[in-house]
Design the sequence.
């Protein structure tokens, strides 16, 4: 699918939108509800491709799942079902990395399949763990197959690959008989996502906490069980970031549904925008943005990597040189997000250079009307390119736009509420 975006009346009116549900929290809440015995109602869900994959896997492995309009009734069995077919994770790294330790506890041979670049993403952390416990872990370009249950005890994980490995273990280890410990080796990045996991675990009655004696070490008591409950997923700062940047560039955008007391690391978008000179006001869970004169800042992505693509767009509009540090993990997502954004923003005439771990954007360079933009089958790239075009006041065509279904299927419908004009047409993709 390709989408044409035009500025329309963007910036000339006060548009009010609502942040979609947090995909990160939704993954965690759905899995915890599935592991609890009894009925849980998870409310405020967006049925993106990634969340559908997690719901389907939970329904396959440990619970009865019935989806409503924006909620899911999840009735946990209090144990695991017999898995008679592969567990399909689509392109969702969270789904796969959360499921592998949890589904190992079935003791069954479990095959995980997926789509896109899923099995190009790093999985060696789990392979090393499984092999050290003499369990089966076999990976091909098409699947991962495991057999054997992980045991309790001490684990040592790198902190700079993906926090999803840490979270995956945190879901599984409380169910074992003996206590466990996870020591995270420096540098420890994406700490906020681990905090998010700990928060949702606590919400579902499971205890896991930081050691007071050993740095970056998690202590997980064994013999625990998840408690069923009703749970409402809060609004997503990582998705709201696209409209926050657009609001800073054009003005007249209010975003509802952003909890001030959130655990989300991507709430850093507000601090980053403020440091770049953006003007906005918060009223409870609403934030209203004004058109602002922006300047460059030093940005650290260690704790908020999902903001990377839209922050590269922001840098194009900031006077001075923006430096984005600790960006290496962007190269291991649905696309190489650094290479993808460099290639596409160059079509606007933007001046961007990068190393393996850093991105530099020369702001204040006049942007020009781009040719057709390529979305690289990456939802965050597609949304960022739409923001760049509209921020510059251009009409632009973006292909691979169907990628937004991974995280925010209604993105373009919401974009139209700002006054932007959106036209979509099939380009042969599904």
Sequence:
């Amino acid at each position: 699918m390709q989408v044409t975006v035009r500025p329309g009346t963007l910036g000339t009116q006060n548009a009010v939108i609502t942040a979609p549900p947090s995909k990160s929290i939704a993954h965690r809440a759905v899995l915890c509800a599935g592991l609890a015995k009894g009925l849980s109602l998870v409310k405020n869900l967006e049925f993106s491709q990634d969340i559908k994959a997690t719901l389907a896997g939970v329904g396959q492995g440990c619970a009865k799942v019935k989806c409503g309009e924006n909620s899911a009734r999840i009735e946990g069995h209090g144990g695991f079902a017999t898995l008679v077919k592969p567990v399909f994770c689509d392109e969702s790294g969270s789904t796969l990395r959360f499921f592998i330790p949890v589904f190992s506890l079935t003791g069954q041979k479990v095959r995980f399949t997926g789509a896109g670049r899923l099995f190009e993403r790093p999985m060696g952390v789990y392979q090393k763990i499984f092999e050290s416990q003499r369990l089966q872990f076999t990976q091909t370009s098409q699947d991962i197959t495991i057999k054997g249950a992980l045991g309790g005890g001490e684990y040592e994980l790198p902190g700079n690959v993906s926090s999803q490995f840490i979270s995956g273990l945190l879901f599984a280890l409380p169910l074992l008989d003996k206590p466990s410990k996870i020591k995270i080796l420096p540098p420890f990045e994406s700490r906020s996502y681990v905090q998010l996991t700990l928060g949702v675990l606590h919400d579902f009655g499971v205890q896991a906490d930081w050691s007071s004696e050993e740095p970056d070490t998690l202590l997980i008591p064994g013999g625990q069980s998840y408690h069923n409950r009703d749970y409402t997923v809060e609004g997503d700062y990582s998705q709201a970031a696209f409209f926050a940047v657009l609001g800073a560039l054009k003005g007249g955008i209010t975003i509802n549904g952003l909890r001030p007391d959130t655990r989300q690391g991507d709430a850093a978008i507000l601090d980053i925008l403020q440091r770049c000179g953006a003007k906005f006001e918060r009223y409870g869970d609403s934030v209203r943005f004004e058109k602002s004169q922006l300047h460059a800042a030093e940005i650290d992505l260690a704790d908020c990597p999902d903001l990377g693509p839209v922050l590269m767009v922001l840098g194009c509009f900031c006077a001075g040189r923006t430096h984005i540090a600790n960006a290496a993990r962007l190269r291991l997502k649905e696309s190489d997000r650094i290479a993808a954004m460099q290639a596409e923003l160059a079509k606007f005439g933007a001046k961007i250079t990068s190393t393996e771990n850093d991105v530099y954007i020369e702001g204040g360079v006049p942007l020009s009307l781009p040719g057709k933009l390529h979305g690289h089958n990456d939802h965050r790239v597609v949304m960022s390119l739409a923001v760049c075009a509209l921020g510059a006041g251009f009409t632009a065509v973006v292909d691979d736009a169907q990628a937004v279904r991974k995280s925010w299927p209604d993105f373009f419908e919401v974009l139209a509420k700002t006054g932007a004009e959106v036209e979509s047409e099939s380009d042969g993709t599904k």
